[in-house]
Amino acid sequence: MSKKWQITVPGSTANLGPGFDSIGLGLSLYLKLDVSLQDSWEIIHLDDNGPSEFELEQHLLYIIAKKIADQYKKNLPTCRVEMASELPLARGLGSSAAVIVAGIELANQLCDLKLTVQDKLNLSSQIEGHPDNATASVLGGLTISSMDENGIVDTFHVNDINASFVVYVPDVELKTSESRSVLPKQFDRAYAVRASANANMLAASLMVRDFERAGHYMEADLFHEPFRSTLIPQYAEIKEAAKANGAYGTALSGAGPTLISIIPTAIAEGFVATMQAKFPEHHIILTKADEHGVQVI
Ligand code: HSE
């Protein structure tokens, strides 16, 4: 067994509007772990995108790695992990899913579990409770997924999403649980049919890479954004300004509070500069689709 690994996991955006709990996209923003075997546990965060103080047993990475080792009836070897993350916490960029995928891969490497990609898709989605962010972090690219009642995930995976994406990260956190608590428990049938039709159109538009049409449907969500929008700083203003400056469309990234626009790559630099000048309190980042998913070196 090797004694050192680097594990890289992309962050992700979920939903892209109406693809609620199903559609994900791996982003070129990363969580990186440098792992080396040693005779006690040590987890070190190299930046602010992790807890500053924690007990080992409460750290999500350790919890997941231990859970997976236990599930496969293996002892988890002790190690030192240095974590560097470009994913701010509780902002809707899949930071938890990335740590879950990293924890599964950590156990996979440390315990030599030989997990398949399908195992990783199932395990990470079961832990998250929905497959959107988790599948995107495992595979990169665009993922359209369904998880059955036994936790088995079926994912349609598409690379070459050659548009650019701009994320608007506000300086406030929003926990997914809080953002899910405002959602209705039920929809009536006519409403659900319209919501699901918009999700179908989004998926189809992305599959044929009609990004203009995808942008239109990203703005046509009925499952969650109408109920979450009041929790999101400058929700309407950012969407309107993005459209006026050439974005195809803008949606909440996951449960928010980050928003994400899909834009033509040709306008990317000017677009970001214009939006940053208009929204100086947001951290605005130009990203693209990650093409690799979780990687181990
Ligand atoms: N699909 C999830 C949601 C993503 O919108 O709540 C965040 O976990």
Outline the structure in words.
- By secondary structure, this protein is of the alpha+beta class.
- The chain folds into 2 domains: 2-157 and 290-294, Ribosomal Protein S5, domain 2; 162-286, GHMP kinase, C-terminal domain (Alpha-Beta Plaits, 2-Layer Sandwich).
- Helices cover 36% and strands 24% of the residues.
- It has 10 helices and 11 strands.
- The strands form 2 sheets. Strands 1, 2, 3, 4, 5, 6 and 11 form a 7-stranded mixed β-sheet that branches. A 4-stranded antiparallel β-sheet has the order 8-9-7-10, sandwiched between helices.
- A hairpin with an 8-residue loop joins β1 (4-14) and β2 (23-37).
- α2 packs across α3 (117-128), α2 (95-110) packs across α4 (132-139) and α3 packs antiparallel against α4.
- The model has no long low-confidence stretch (mean pLDDT 97).
- Bound molecules: L-homoserine.
- Residues 14-15, 20-21, 130, 132-133, 176, 180, 224, 254-255 line the site of L-homoserine.
- The third-level CATH topology of the largest domain is Ribosomal Protein S5, domain 2
What general outline do the C-alpha atoms trace? globular
Distance between the termini: 13 Å
Output mean pLDDT. Answer: 97
The portion of residues assigned to helices is: 25-40%
CATH class of the largest domain: Alpha Beta
- The radius of gyration over CA amounts to 19 Å
Structural class: alpha+beta
How many distinct folded domains? 2
The CATH architecture assignment of the largest domain turns out to be: 2-Layer Sandwich
Give the tally of β-strands. Answer: 11
Low-pLDDT regions: none
